[in-house]
Amino acid sequence: MNKVKNNTEEPKAALYQNQVRLIGFLGKDPEQHENRTVLSLATKTSWPIKDSDEWQSHTEWHRVIVWDKLAEDVRSLAKGDHVLIEGELRSSSYLKHVNIGVDTITVPTTSWEIKARAVCKMVRKQKPAKKPAKALKAAA
Description:
Elements: E1 20-26, E2 31-32, E3 36-48, E4 55-67, H1 68-73, E5 82-100, E6 103-121
């Protein structure tokens, strides 16, 4: 007879995790810099409008930084490519100087970006080409 031992230990989980996975389209060609490449990634969320057959959507733009060897590998990507990005969320804070008339004010600003660990170009199935419409002969 098999005896089942009750395990009262809770499952072990990481104390911290900073992991991002995004799938979207590049909004422009990659920007090449000395040892990094910057990608502009668009993701979209859509939902139906209540009591309507129409949909509403919101596009979110993400700044993705790709470093070193991976930065070289993503140079072949182009605007409109469908990509999967995996990485971590990073923030940076700085003081932004804003001119208002003759005065300049300093505004604390935080920006967010994704530090990419992996970038994968997605392959989309092509829709079959539509058959060209038959030409109509004009009545003489």
